Amino acid sequence: MSILESIVNQNQLPARYKAMNEQDIHQRIRDIKKELGSSLFIPGHHYQKEEVIQHCDATGDSLQLAQVSSRQTEASYIVFCGVHFMAETADMLTSTSQTVLLPDMRAGCSMADMADVNQTEIAWNHLQDLFGDTIIPLTYVNSTAAIKAFVGRHGGATVTSSNAHTILKWAFTQKKRVLFLPDQHLGRNTGYDLGIPLEAMAIWNQHENRLEYEGRAEECRMILWKGHCSVHENFTVANIDFIRKTYPEMKVLVHPECSHEVVERSDLNGSTKYIIDCIQQAEPGAQWAIGTEMNLVQRLIDRHPEQKIVSLNPYMCPCLTMNRIDSKHLLWNLESILEGKPRNIITVEEQTAREGRLAIERMLVRS
Question: What are 65-77's pLDDT values in tens digits?
Answer without folding.
Answer: 999 999 999 999 9
